[in-house]
Predict the 3D structure of the following.
Amino acid sequence: MHIVLITGISGSGKSVALNVLEDAGYYCVDNLPPPLLPALVETVNHESKLAVAVDARSAESLVELPANVRKLKDDGHDVRVMFLTASTHSLVARFSETRRSHPLSHELRPGENPASRRTLIECIAEERERLSAIEQLGHVIDTSELSANKLRAWVRELAQIERAPLTLFFESFAFKVGVPLDADFVFDVRAVPNPYYDLTLRPLTGKDAPVIAFLEAQPSANEMLEDIRKFIEKWLPSFKTDNRSYLTVAVGCTGGQHRSVYMAERLGAYFSATERVVVRHREQS
């Protein structure tokens, strides 16, 4: 079994890392006490990939973690450990922004007065002390200056997860019905001559040869198609870098039958040579 163990300081991005692995098909468990790790592996042995997050709330049993990891490796499992950390300044800023309390702030030390809770900085310092023995157990990632997207990319690299290719959706629609809510880009092609006003073309759609011939004969249709294509080609790499899984390009005309359908079909055919493409027409059954 391929096992990724995520541990580290609260606020350093463990949830982000665990979500990346979950999206990649890992069976994920958060805040697992280390003594339960061997039993968990045995229970979910039908899974090929497992991700487990362990934090300082399991203080008394953290000392067992190195032995558990060695045992799993001896049993033939591929185990990788990620230790996420960040500067105290960064952690304080993150907890302030999210208005979350530190997990250790709810714990009381022996003999401690319930009215005298530890400060955030005191909680961070104690958590560092608890986790110091396991910090070098795996690969240490300092997320102080990392964006969430960068951390996701690093987690994928360390876990050797192949990033799923971006799916490019081209959707035709009718402005009279409304703009699709899931659209990332919306292009209005109503400036192109409308086949609707040709009574022989009216019952057809932008997928029919007579309508295609009509629009191909319009210089404005060709120019607009070229402009949209160039725009998408220019910015598509940026969306891939941004770790997007989907990008929806909506193309609209008045009734969603002729011009928008033609444009969506032509764009889909062009980009399908290099990208994963889906073409859909909202106003057509």
Observations:
- Strands lie at 2-8, 27-29, 49-54, 78-85, 139-142, 167-174, 185-188, 246-253, 276-281.
- The chain has a mean pLDDT of 90.
- The radius of gyration is 27 Å.
- The longest strand covers residues 78-85.
